[in-house]
Amino acid sequence: MKAAYYLQTGPPEVLTVGELPTPKPGPTQCLVRVGAADVNPIDTYIRAGLVPATLTFPHIPGCSLAGTVIETGPQVARFKPGDRVWATNLGVAGRPGTLAEFAAVEESLLYPIPPGVRDEDAAALALVGMTAHIGLFRKARLQPGETLLVNGGAGGVGSAVVQMARIAGARVIATAGSDAKVAACRELGAELALNYKTQDLAAAVKAFAPDGLNVWWETSREPDFERAIPLLALRGRMIVMAGRDARPVFPVGPFYTRDATLLGFVLFNAAPHEQRAAAEDMNRWMAEGRLKARIDRILPLSEAATAHRLQEESTIQRSGALAGKIVIKP
């Protein structure tokens, strides 16, 4: 099979595309013909050697996929050949990734694709949607009527947060770094969308939510706590899910006098039942057309290194070039 892989960690150029043996499904695995896969920041961190990871070389990167089951192991009970499925949490913890024509995936990590949903959309939503769901409902415990701000509402995770928060009955504020991305946030359902480069964020938030924000969702690698915490309501919550090396200033007084809570998490720590609950909601909302993928571009497998470079430039160098997910078509 054709696959994108690397033999050692390093820059995007270590990624090559070539022939690797097609995997054989184990007793509890399904062999999936990959219809679409995604690219995530974590893929680039692992490839660059910035995050400790258990890797067996050649390593195929990629966390998420959508495709069709073509073979099952003898202990698989939920799926059969011909079923369309999606999965995430691949490419980590010793598991091969998704940038290949085929992948052998544990049945426990697979979920059915609802009728009418494209492979590209299911793959693009897999990791970011599950991240948004677990952060909003398990960590922040968002309630109907609360006010949430997502800093970076046009990106992969941010766009899923905007949509799910609206589904949950929250009032949503979204920020973005260009007028085009601000318009996209409004289309996703944000009641107030702001350009954080040109508008007075504090003044606009205070006018919209005089009692403060119940939840601030931070997508940036460099959280600005001095800006965010004064805008929180009493018992407000702040979510951080990026910025492994960040060391920002933290205003202790305004934080504890609000009875505020700072919540951090990574999806890969979520228990299987938590991930399954998220997947079930996501499937229902995708089927209803209420949860939609925000895809920046679709690239062929041959451009895997280009995709990694673009993702790295957008995430680490803050190029602003991406507005949504990169999807790879094997």
Outline of this structure?
By secondary structure, the protein is of the alpha/beta class. The chain has helices at 41-48, 119-139, 156-167, 179-188, 201-208, 225-228, 252-256, 272-288, 304-315, and strands at residues 2-5, 16-19, 29-39, 65-72, 84-87, 102-106, 110-112, 147-151, 171-176, 192-195, 213-218, 232-240, 261-264, 295-300, 325-329.
Keywords:
330 residues; alpha/beta; Quinone Oxidoreductase, Chain A, domain 1; Rossmann fold; seven-stranded mixed beta sheet; six-stranded parallel beta sheet; 9 helices; 15 strands; globular
Overall SS class: alpha/beta
Extract low-pLDDT stretches. Answer: none
CATH architecture of the largest domain: Alpha-Beta Complex
Distance between the termini: 10 Å
What does this entry look like structurally?
There is one protein chain. The chain is of the alpha/beta class and 330 residues long. The protein folds into two domains: 2-113 and 294-329, Quinone Oxidoreductase, Chain A, domain 1 (Alpha-Beta Complex); 129-267, NAD(P)-binding Rossmann-like Domain (Rossmann fold). Helix content is 29%, strand content 25%. It has nine helices and 15 strands. The protein has helices at residues 41-48, 119-139, 156-167, 179-188, 201-208, 225-228, 252-256, 272-288, 304-315; strands at residues 2-5, 16-19, 29-39, 65-72, 84-87, 102-106, 110-112, 147-151, 171-176, 192-195, 213-218, 232-240, 261-264, 295-300, 325-329. The strands form three sheets. Strands 3, 4, 5, 6, 7, 14 and 15 form a seven-stranded mixed beta sheet that branches. A six-stranded parallel beta sheet has the order 10-9-8-11-12-13, sandwiched between helices. Helix 3 links the parallel strand 8 (147-151) and strand 9 (171-176). The longest helix has 21 residues, at 119-139.
